[in-house]
Amino acid sequence: MDRIPVRELNQNTSAVLARVQRGESLEVTVKGTAVARLVPITTTQSLLDRLVAEGRATAPTTSGPVPMPPTLGDPAVEAAAELAAMRDEERW
């Protein structure tokens, strides 16, 4: 990986970015100390793969559709109507 001083980046920004676009990775230095890295963007990696590589996400452990939770209660009973009926009974 080549190193370039920040002054060269400031004076030749287009040329430096052209090098990165061609696939080079460059470290930017200030007073000889690396402070930044310019790397080309790769589109071959999916967003999930990139986040996993960065440690910001965990890959799924299963494949296929996510199973739905079990249906609770009787699907033929409308919950809102039952609740309204119960409230009406309490009021009288």
UniProtKB/TrEMBL annotation:
Organism domain of life: Bacteria
A single GO molecular function term of this UniProt record: toxin sequestering activity
A Pfam family recorded for this sequence: PhdYeFM_antitox
Family stated for the protein in its record: Belongs to the phD/YefM antitoxin family.
Function: Antitoxin component of a type II toxin-antitoxin (TA) system.
PANTHER family found in the cross-reference section: ANTITOXIN VAPB46 (PTHR35377:SF5), ANTITOXIN VAPB49-RELATED-RELATED (PTHR35377)
Record protein name field: Antitoxin
Organism: Streptomyces himalayensis subsp. aureolus
